[in-house]
Design goal:
The structure is a single chain. By secondary structure, the protein is mainly α. The protein contains two helices and three strands, in the order H-E-H-E-E. It has a three-stranded antiparallel β-sheet with strand order 1-3-2, covered by helices on one side. It is rod-shaped and about 95 Å long. The N and C termini lie far apart (77 Å).
Length: 84
């Protein structure tokens, strides 16, 4: 009976060790793989104007900002004088 308990404990320890080593190997494999993070970083900028903007000024500001390289979207708040 004593041998049975010892063998059972040995098999349980081997199973737990195998599971932990498998998890460790999988983790090391995933961490060492080259990242496919080809996303460029995006920054948000805000321009404050001293006064509120007219519709003509908003169109001009949007056109100028959109013509800049890397600009994806332009939002102008004419009442508060803010361009984002």
């Amino acid at each position: 009976m004593k041998k049975y308990i010892i063998w059972k404990a040995v098999f349980v320890l081997i199973g737990i060790s195998f599971t932990l080593l498998s998890i460790l190997a999988l983790h090391v494999y995933q961490v060492t793989q080259a990242s496919d993070n080809s996303h460029k970083q995006v920054q948000l900028s805000r321009i404050d104007f001293d006064c509120s903007l007219t519709d003509q000024m908003v169109k001009k500001v949007k056109k100028k900002l959109r013509s800049q390289k890397g600009v994806r979207h332009v939002y102008c708040n004419a009442q508060d004088g803010i361009a984002v």
